[in-house]
Each structure stands twice: as C-alpha cells, then as structure tokens.
C-alpha cells in the first residue's frame, strides 16, 4: 500500500491517536468541502485501517468512540465551535487560510478540569496570512517543524522540474517547494512591520471614528475609534440595516466622546447612515476614496489617508491587531504617470489576503478624521493657499 505523507495525513494521524486515548478534539479545515472530502476522509481512512468501529455523523461532522469525540468545523463557520469545552487538542489543516481570530475563538474551548489543551497548525506558509505574521512576531510562542515538497520521496524529479518551470516567481518558488516562510512586507508597503511602535505610549480623550460599510457585498461593516496613541475600539458587523448601524455608531460616539466621524461613501451605500448621524447633530463627513485630496501630491483621498495613517503609526500610534498589520503590509504605494502618489487597487489586496481590507480602510478613515475632522488643517491649508496667491500677485506687481 502506498501512503502519501501530506499535511492532511499527518493531521488525521495526530487526531486519531488522541481520539483513541479518549480525548475531545476539534478538527478544522478551510471550508466544509475540504473538511468533509479531505480531512474527515483521512480520519475515516485511519479508523478503517485500525478497524475501529467509530460512530461517524457526517451531517453534524462529529465522530465518537468510547470517551473520544472529534468535532469537525471550518474556518468559514468558526463560530460553530463556541461553547465547546474540555477540548484537549485542536488540529488546524491549512492554517494559513484561517482568520486572525482563530486563537481568540479556540482558546475558550481548551478548558476544563485536568485539561491541558494544545493547538497544532499544519499549513503551507502563505505570504499575506496572519500566520506568517504571527510566527515572525512571536517566535517564543510557536514551535515550527518544517518539511518541503522536495522531502517527499513520492514526488519524482520530473514532477519537481515541472513545478519549477510553472512557478516563475523565485520567492513563491521558495514558499511552495522549500517551505520558506516569506516576509510579509513588500518594499513598497505603505508601512513596514519594523516601523510599528512596540507599546502604547500615552493617554488622550481626543477620539475619532472611521466607518467602512459593506455596501451590497459580503464584506463587514467596520467601526474603528482611534486616537494618536491607540485603537480604542474595533466593531465589525456582517449584516445590519441603517438603523442598527446608527445605533452602533451612537453607542461608540457616546462611549468614547468622538470628536469627528469619517464614513466611506465611495459606493454611495453609506449615505443613509451619514444622513442619520448628521440629523442627530454628530460631526460626520462622507469621504469618497476617489475624491480630490487635501494635498495635490496624492492621486486621491485614499492614497492621502493611508499615508497619513502610516505617519501616525510611525509617530506612536500603537497597533495590536494582526489583521490590520496584514492588510497594511499588502497596501503598496507607487508614483503614477502624473508624478502623484497612488495606492495599489483594493481588488489586488483582496485577492492576496482573501478578503476586503475593511479594517484598514476604517482605520485610515479614523486617522483622516484625526487630521482633518476638526477643520483646523483645512482652514490652515485654505489660508496658506490664499497667502500664496497674494504673494504671487505682489511679485508680479513689483
């Protein structure tokens, strides 16, 4: 019998060994299809090889035998594991495809008398994933065991040559064939990982809010309250009507005494919330990402607000969220044909990280509100422009 020693095989073996010891286990895969057809199938194969008459419920994705229980779940339905307890082991297949809240959701499950829970992540490194970032920032918390495609004795030299011929990017070649965990940063990232402050350095009551709404798509509605030292609050809601969103905004405004609110109205889907907040007397302003920036050196407001956010971070704005760092690392900046700074397309970021950079957009809007929401920067620039015109006029007059 020929057995392929891939990640899913190792995951299934690890799960079954603990399962037969009477432990409660969570088995996770990237989606339901992969869970059912790959990971659970491998688990079934191991049980059949050992002639174990386990009870397998494919509808509930649950396997039981004696005291042992295996709960199956996907990253798409991660909320389904909330409430589980006494879990001794969580095994995450293709962990780089999991969301940043993976540990946050798993940790409460690893509790109970006599339980010493552990998490095992099996994955090909994926540039742009929170996993790459976490491993690089927390080397003391993660034990990394690596193997590469070249170590697999079942892959022929011809197959390796074919892979080398089809992967033209040398960095991706290192990732896919050698298992190298690539740096998440691009040289053109709007901010580098090394530029983030290491700690929260101060206190202030001057808070500002950025709101990025999902529009007609499946993205999240994200509300971020921030100041020049830290993010005070991040609220993400998948689906909600204008009244629900208004209630969320109202609660945050009152709780943090928000001084200015900037809302993305690029798709014109946020106008209802904007109108409602204005009607209530709140200092809210709609920002179209494609609108004219305050400074002419930027191609649009989106480029300007992200650069202002990167400057705020470099000046001490502490960020303790891997999802935002990932999104900012894949937000690159360049100079266009008109000599103005512009960002990469939002669609490109979405393709690389697997979802829309909603949190980064809301954060950038909050930073934009911090700089322009009180009107002082706009007034100063307006006064400067008028002064420049008069100086220019006087120079001609002389």
Write a brief caption for the model.
The chain has 398 residues and is α/β, with parallel strands linked by helices. Helices cover 39% and strands 17% of the residues. The protein is built from 13 helices and 13 strands.
Describe this structure in words.
Helix 3 (102-106) links the parallel strand 5 (89-93) and strand 6 (118-122). This protein is α/β, with parallel strands linked by helices and 398 residues long. Mean pLDDT is 85; it is low at 376-380. It is globular and about 90 Å long. It folds into 2 domains: 7-123, Rossmann fold (3-Layer(aba) Sandwich), CATH 3.40.50.300; 193-381, Nucleotidyltransferase, domain 5 (2-Layer Sandwich). The protein has helices spanning 7-19, 32-49, 102-106, 130-137, 157-166, 170-178, 242-256, 271-279, 301-314, 322-329, 346-353, 358-372, 376-397, and strands spanning 24-29, 55-57, 62-65, 68-74, 89-93, 118-122, 207-212, 221-226, 231-237, 258-264, 284-287, 333-335, 341-343.
**How big a fraction of the residues is strand?**
15-25%
- Low-confidence sequence ranges: 376-380
Span from first to last CA?
95 Å
Number of strands: 13
Average the pLDDT over all residues and give the rounded result. Answer: 85
């Amino acid at each position: 019998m020929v057995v392929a020693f891939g990640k899913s095989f190792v995951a299934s073996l690890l799960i079954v060994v603990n399962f037969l010891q009477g432990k409660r286990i969570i088995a996770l895969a990237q989606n339901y299809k992969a869970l059912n057809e790959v990971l659970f199938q491998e688990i079934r194969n191991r049980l059949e090889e050992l002639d174990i008459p386990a009870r397998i419920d494919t509808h509930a994705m649950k396997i039981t035998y004696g005291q042992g229980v295996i709960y199956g779940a996907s990253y798409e339905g991660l909320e389904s594991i909330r409430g589980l307890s006494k879990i001794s082991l969580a095994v995450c297949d293709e962990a780089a495809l999991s969301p940043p809240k993976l540990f946050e959701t798993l940790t409460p499950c690893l509790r109970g008398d006599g339980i010493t829970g552990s998490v095992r992540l099996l994955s090909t490194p994926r540039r742009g994933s929170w996993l790459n970032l976490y491993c690089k920032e927390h080397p003391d918390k993660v034990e990394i065991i690596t193997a590469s495609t070249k170590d697999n004795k079942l892959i022929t030299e011809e197959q390796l040559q074919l892979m080398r011929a089809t992967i033209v990017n040398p960095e991706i070649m290192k990732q896919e064939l050698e298992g190298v965990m690539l740096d998440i940063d691009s040289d053109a990232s709007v901010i580098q990982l090394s530029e983030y402050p290491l700690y929260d350095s101060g206190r202030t009551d001057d808070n500002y809010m950025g709101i990025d709404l999902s529009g007609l798509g499946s993205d999240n509605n994200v509300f971020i309250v921030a100041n020049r030292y830290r993010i005070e609050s991040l609220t993400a809601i998948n689906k909600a009507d204008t009244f629900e969103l208004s209630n969320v905004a109202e609660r945050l405004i009152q709780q943090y005494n928000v001084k200015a609110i900037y809302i993305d109205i690029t798709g014109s889907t946020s106008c209802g919330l904007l109108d409602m907040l204005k009607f209530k007397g709140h200092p809210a302003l709609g920002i179209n990402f494609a609108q004219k920036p305050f400074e002419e050196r930027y191609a649009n407001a989106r480029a300007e607000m992200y650069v202002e956010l990167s400057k705020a971070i470099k000046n001490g704005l502490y960020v303790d969220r891997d999802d935002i760092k990932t999104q900012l690392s894949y937000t690159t900046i360049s100079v266009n044909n008109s000599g103005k700074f512009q960002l990469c397309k939002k669609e490109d970021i979405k393709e690389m990280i697997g979802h829309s950079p909603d949190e980064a957009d809301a954060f950038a809007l909050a930073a934009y509100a911090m700089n322009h929401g009180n009107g002082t920067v706009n007034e100063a620039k307006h006064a400067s422009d008028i002064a420049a015109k008069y100086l220019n006029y006087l120079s001609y007059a002389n």
